[in-house]
Amino acid sequence: MRNRSLLILTTAVTAGALTLTACGSRDDKGGAENGDNGNVTVTIGLDAPLTGELSALGLGIKNSADLAVKTANEKAYVKGVTFKLESLDDQAQPSAGQQNATKFVADKTVLGVVGPLNSSVAESMQKVFDDAKLVQVSPANTNPALTQGVNWSTGDKKRGYQSYFRTATTDAIQGPFAAQFVFNKAKKTKAFIIDDKKTYGAGLAGTFKGEFEKLGGKVLGTEHINPDTKDFSAVATKVKSSGADVVYYGGEYPAAGPLAKQIKEAGAKVTVVGGDALYSPEYVKLAGAAAANGDIATSVGAPIETLQSAKEFLANYKAKGYKEAYEAYGGYSYDSTWAIIEAVKKVVDGNNGKLPDDARAKVVNAMQSVSFEGVTGSVSFDEFGDTTNKQLTVYQVESGAYKPVESGTFGG
Predict the structure, then answer these.
(1) I want to staple 287 with a disulfide (CB 3.0 to 4.6 A). Which of 145, 177, 257, 321 is the partner?
(2) Is it the case that residue 12 has pLDDT exceeding 70?
């Protein structure tokens, strides 16, 4: 490990990327041996689907994290620390995510990881990170069980992993929020509910169903699909025959787009509704603008373009020339990365300006009390590691693009 560190130092100085910056060797606790001038390089890991059908979201997450790292370095935000981003592709697969988690743990320069996108991938990573006392902050995971345990819905909430945090609010809020809008505002009373059997999709569909029925809505049918088939003609026929006026889909846009298209081609007069994983221009492309017109997606937070707190992020993202859009989770990815930077700063400031030997464990502890004004608004975490920002927004497709319709919180 020491030889690798010296190689990084030599390369960085030669390239002019770092000035008099030493990357010291690290012990098994994730600490650092500070260089002669006291400067160290801290790696922030990034895990997301960077290739495949969900890569539009993943690349937006990566670019936004990269922007946060660049901003911290340009401002010399943590004295004596230079940050770098190491990105790994999980292809939205839990097995790949677990392998990536193991790689991050093995690299002792890594003091925090941003990601993943998918709740099912997060499930495979949490124990790996927690065992290593390596903090993880997701900008996109929404399944409540990740922070509150499998019995969260009964009120028996138990935090399983102290190293896991997220800046996106959960489906315990998002599903009911969508149900209230659909029933009370859109005046849809007969639902057909479909999910992709994944952690995120099934969980979100379940919370929507519970609130929709509580409000007096009727569920005329439920169905599970294999999102990889892309042939949904059978379920499309069932939707048409059911007489439903709304379809709620728990899943992601690669399947949701073709599903919506086929349902409407079958003659069903329905509005397709889904969660944050449908909130992407890719959904409209896959469904077709005509078929997608009027469809609804909820997403975390307020529309970033409307936030005063996001103006600098939006300007800087454009100025850096990233090829891909920041998409639905860009602001949350920036804030997740910045939360790690803030936690590292707390640890450094509390240790006479240097990283301690047990930096990883101390960063985990520091994260619990991190609080700052971020791109998406106030960023802080509750006792479960969940964001304290519970705001959500309803978006509806109009003239080929999602437009914000209503923002608020569940019950608000």
Answers:
(1) 257
(2) no
